[in-house]
Design brief:
By secondary structure, this protein is of the alpha/beta class. The chain has 9 helices and 17 strands. The structure holds zinc ion. The site of zinc ion has 5 residues, from loops.
Length: about 375
């Protein structure tokens, strides 16, 4: 059994920013699965730039024809990194932590899976174990959506890797994104009557978005902090020069719906508020274009998996205010839990790291979960 920290150092050294092909990483990962124990299926596809992306599903051969009892799911891509961060793809182990891009999000969990399967004994399997490795999670769960559409993951219980400090996460917020295009009419700024300012109109639109955001504070979902859907206008672009009345302004708005709430509810409320504004300001020209509508990660009725992981790690089950692959892959009637070493608050940053102690604990918890659900 190769030590989990050695595996992680190898994984971080294979750069897999979402735009790059993840095939070299998949090839490396597959070497940990003994071919006499595991059957594989690759789900390759080309992204919009023509780059090869690969999802991999591995399933134990024994017992034959049985439904898998548990699946371990992990994405293989990372967010980009600053060119000046030397350790991003030259990882180092320092004072009990491994530093590098993806060390916590989420190659740490992948290293735990590979460590666990490298010493896998299938002799006492009562039900197969599945492992699913996905591409392009960080840019919208693209790989997971493809696996869900192909019904490629069959287990009723999923452990989906994300840095949660080994806390089992049973629900998460969804994600919505839209761009609003506000059009005016350009003119020399000395003659305001000759034009119409897209930026002044955008300010009215922003006030409408804020009203919609206020309405989204109901219903409340007390398992979350904050306990309701949130809205953010993260980008605004408009105008060409200080002395030109701006002809166009674009607003990028995102929202995070809570479980039980349709992912397009914010969109409908913003549209309602825009219609109200149009009645007041008939010359307003604003159009909203939805770009993403990812459902919340709904909690399951089943709690066996979250309870087990909670007992093993000593952390009470919790929720997260962001989306994850679990929302797409959660089996109907089954249970999905998001879980893994590392901390989301230090991920997606220069200096990302994972504590080695959490990696080792995670390997033990995965082995215990496999024994609990798959072994006789
Ligand atoms: Zn992640």
């Amino acid at each position: 059994m190769k030590p989990v920290e050695k595996i992680l150092l190898d994984l971080v050294a294979i750069p897999t920013v979402s735009a790059q092909s993840n095939e070299p990483l998949i090839d490396y990962a597959q070497t940990f699965f003994a071919p006499n124990v595991w059957a594989f299926r690759r789900y390759p596809y080309r992204d919009s730039a023509g780059t090869l992306k690969v999802n991999l599903v591995a399933r134990t051969r024994r017992p034959p024809r049985a439904r898998p009892a548990l699946a371990l799911v992990c994405h293989t891509d990372t967010v980009p990194y600053e060119a000046s961060w030397r350790e991003a793809v030259k990882p180092v182990l320092r004072r009990g932590r491994i530093y590098g891009r993806g060390s916590s999000d989420v190659k740490g969990f992948l290293a735990c899976i590979l460590s666990a399967v490298s010493a896998f004994d299938d002799a006492s399997l009562a039900a197969p174990l599945e492992v699913a490795l996905t591409a392009e999670e960080e840019i919208g769960c693209v790989g997971a959506k493809r696996l869900a559409a192909a019904k490629a993951v069959r287990a009723p219980r999923l452990i989906v890797g994300e840095p949660t400090r080994l806390t089992p996460i049973y629900a998460g917020k969804g994600y919505g994104l839209a761009e609003i295009v506000v059009r005016g009419r350009e003119a020399h700024s000395a003659f305001p009557a000759a034009g119409r300012s897209a930026i002044f109109d955008a300010a009215r639109v922003l006030a409408s978005i804020e009203r919609a955001a206020k309405r989204l504070e109901r219903p409340r979902h007390t398992a979350f902090d904050p306990p309701h859907a949130t809205v953010n206008v993260g980008l605004i672009r408009g105008g060409t020069a200080k002395n030109i009345i701006p002809g166009e302004c674009r607003i990028t708005v995102e929202w995070r719906p809570v479980p039980g709430e349709p992912p397009d509810r914010a969109l409908s409320l913003i549209e309602e508020e825009l219609n109200r504004l149009r009645r007041r300001v008939p010359a307003l020209d604003a159009e909203i274009h939805p770009l993403r509508l990812d459902p919340p990660f709904e909690p399951s009725q089943q709690t066996e998996l979250r309870d087990l992981l909670s007992r093993l790690g000593g952390h009470a089950p919790s929720t997260v205010p962001f989306g994850a692959e679990a929302a797409h892959l959660r089996p109907s009637g089954g249970e999905a839990v998001v879980f893994g070493p590392g901390d989301m608050t230090t991920a997606h940053r220069t200096g990302e790291y994972v504590p080695v102690a959490q990696l080792r604990a995670c390997v033990r918890h995965l082995q215990a979960a496999v024994a609990h659900f798959c072994k006789g």
